[in-house]
Amino acid sequence: MTTSVTKLLKALNENQILHPDSWTLKYQYISGMRKWVAGIVPSELLKRSVKQSIESLMTLNQDGNFYKTFPKEVLTPDYGDRWGVRANYIEINNRAIAQMQDKITKNGILSSIKLLPAIPPSAKSWANCIILSQIFPNIYGDGYNKSPDEENSIYGIKLNGGYSKNIIDFDIAKKISPGEQFSAFNDLAHFHGLKTGFRTVISADQIKVVQKDGSDITFDWKNPEHVELFVKEHVELIKCGFEAIFIDSAKHIGGYDMGNYTGVGALPEYEQMQYIIHEIRLRSKKTHLSFVGEKSTGDFQRYENLGLQAGTAFIEPDHFDEVKSKSIDFKYSHNYTPGIEVSNDNDTGGRTYESRLNRIHNSLFGYEYPSDKLPSFMQMEDLFPLRYDTNTHHLMMSNPSYSTDGTAQSHWENLFAKDDGREYNKKVAELFAHSLNL
């Protein structure tokens, strides 16, 4: 049987025989049987080849065995069907780390694979889950980067138009399909001990439907064909191996708390979203999916009945005792748990390293027993600090290249903080290392 990872290596004209990676051994961080690389800056990983990244993951294998070829069967870390209520969700902006060559942006899924060795694997008691920011084409110039002050929002997407040129390597799409490229990423993430998911949007005016013989039209929740398209597109991604969906603006589904709604356009009705979540589970034949809703203040029973497993921004995680107290309050909640944020996609920067580290600490340790832990949500910046003059939200709303010479390598070098970022990443690793065996 040819695996998606083997197929990816073939498509990239790489030999399928894998070898231990000495660079990984130099930077590996070990916590029990769990291993990852730390004390790094992302450019060191992003400049490597996909094969080197795969060899790095093989070198970090938790069971201590090195596989010379990628295993034929890789299972997702098993924490039961309700794993999502305790997980740490870490969003990776796969567009921002994509290959930017002059004005072209591409191959974000390959960059995501390259970053995997630096993501701490799941703990003994709960999962770490990677959320990819972009899957579908964005409306405002997909496949291109623009100047830092030009809009190129990741929140405006197209359905019925395949997958983003920012993300998929279309140069090899005849050898390995876009879906198989996602499958390769998911298999590698699972091998490393991670769950995976993706962000989606539900604000109607932020979604376009691609017409095969005409102009794109605005999505309409009252159109049954559009609702069916939404379900089918998400089921196809779940079949590629994703296990979680982060739903932007989920708090406001059905018209709830619309005074604080910042999206554009109509939202699905409450019963309609119940149907959509149910159908995604039913058609994908996956009972263990985790649906995570943005914001979780207010009526928790409402979110649970909707079909969500976790929500974000329940409380600020700055104070350990408050986090611990709330985790005790929800220790018997096994279907839905409100969660906390280290930071979210609207983060405009300015938080000190010390504050971020404190919030990560409280997210990982704020409980009486590990089985009581609240779910948490983090951004790429919480593990790998960005350069001083940008922030998470800016990279969601625009797609600048920070290259000084037009090359992808220069963009990767300049997107993130350098020496101080390396030291910060080492401190993050120390926090995760203490938590992984609890």
Global outline? globular
Mean pLDDT: 96
Please tally the β strands and state the result: 16
Q: Biggest sheet: strands side by side, in what order?
A: 14-13-12-11-8-6-3-16-15
Structure description:
With 438 residues, this protein is an alpha/beta fold. It is 34% helix and 13% strand. A nine-stranded parallel β-sheet has the order 14-13-12-11-8-6-3-16-15. The protein has a three-stranded mixed β-sheet with strand order 7-9-10, covered by helices on one side. The longest helix has 17 residues.
Core attributes:
single chain, 438 residues, alpha/beta, 9-stranded parallel sheet, 3-stranded mixed sheet, 15 helices, 16 strands, 34% helix, 13% strand
Secondary structure blueprint with pairings:
Elements lengths: L3 H8 L10 H6 E4 L2 E4 L4 H5 L3 H10 L28 E5 L6 E3 L2 E3 L1 H8 L12 E5 L24 E3 L18 H14 L3 E6 L6 E3 L7 E2 L5 H16 L4 E4 L22 H15 L5 E4 L6 H7 L3 E2 L8 H10 L7 E2 L1 E2 L11 H13 L10 E4 H4 L8 H6 L10 H8 L3 H17 L3
Parallel strand pairs: 3-6, 3-16, 6-8, 7-9, 8-11, 11-12, 12-13, 13-14, 15-16
Antiparallel strand pairs: 1-2, 4-5, 9-10
Helix pairs in contact: 1-6, 4-5, 5-6, 7-8, 11-15
